[in-house]
């Protein structure tokens, strides 16, 4: 593939919509973002994408890669992101392809994070790892032998629905005692009555332990070497969360091949979502 090409990268989030042009080496050539409207997010997203496209002359755009929260059908044909109530079975891939006139590829935002962090971030030296987003919900992407694991429905790796307790706590998925029902931003707000940013130290410690417990189960099944964590909730809790998670993992995981796994923050900061969206497209193109 020639060097002077790029992809349009689109990140569909609950608080912001972002678009960028990303080169083959992962360089973000230009980017723009707007708050996610409560009403008519599609019109706002269309305007944003076209604005970024119109401002691009350095690179020929060959595709569009999109990262979006789920649930979604395979390939992002229909999306119902929990953080955008206005979209239920919204035809995202086709709509963006029509609006941009570009071949369009869509995947879950946590799987896109795994692609980004394996390409240029905290897992670039690893071939077997998991990337997890702890935000409004808990999503994840699993990489095995250097390949992103999709699963039949495209939802492989969802650590957020590993059972970690026995309280009978209801999860949004309909199950009980899922990790997401304890450590997600939504769960913390329901439990404490305030933003996760103001969670008490004891709750952060507990949630770190629960996360480490879940990672121990994944490590035993999937033989991964690192877990990279993003999302505003986990990153906001910073060192106390990560220290508790690593301690609990070490205490829980005694089987030899899992030793040495570490749980670390993402390496790409606020670039991760857009680089991940670009990687969704580059994964198919190269």
Overview of the molecule:
The protein is α/β, with parallel strands linked by helices and 286 residues long. It has 2 domains: 5-111 and 271-285, ATPase, nucleotide binding domain (Nucleotidyltransferase, domain 5, 2-Layer Sandwich), CATH 3.30.420.40; 125-266, ATPase, nucleotide binding domain (Nucleotidyltransferase, domain 5), CATH 3.30.420. It has helices at 41-54, 92-100, 109-120, 180-183, 185-192, 201-222, 232-252, 272-285, and strands spanning 5-12, 16-23, 28-35, 60-68, 104-108, 129-134, 138-144, 147-148, 226-230, 262-265. The strands form 2 sheets. It has a 5-stranded mixed β-sheet with strand order 3-2-1-4-5, sandwiched between helices. A 5-stranded mixed β-sheet has the order 8-7-6-9-10, sandwiched between helices. Helix 3 (109-120) crosses helix 8 (272-285) and helix 6 packs across helix 7. The protein starts with a strand and ends with a helix.
Quick tags:
286 residues, alpha/beta, Nucleotidyltransferase, domain 5, five-stranded mixed beta sheet, 36% helix, globular
Q: Please name the CATH topology of the largest domain.
A: Nucleotidyltransferase, domain 5
Low-confidence stretches: none
The largest sheet, given as strand count, sense and whether it forms a barrel, is:
5 strands, mixed
Order of helices and strands: EEEHEHEHEEEHHHEHEH
Radius of gyration using CA atoms only:
18 Å
The backbone outline, from C-alpha atoms, is: globular
Q: Report the CATH superfamily of the largest domain.
A: ATPase, nucleotide binding domain
Residue fraction in strands: 15-25%
Termini, distance in Å?
Answer: 8 Å
The number of E-state strands comes to 10
- How many domain regions? 2
Please tell me the overall pLDDT.
93
CATH architecture of the largest domain: 2-Layer Sandwich
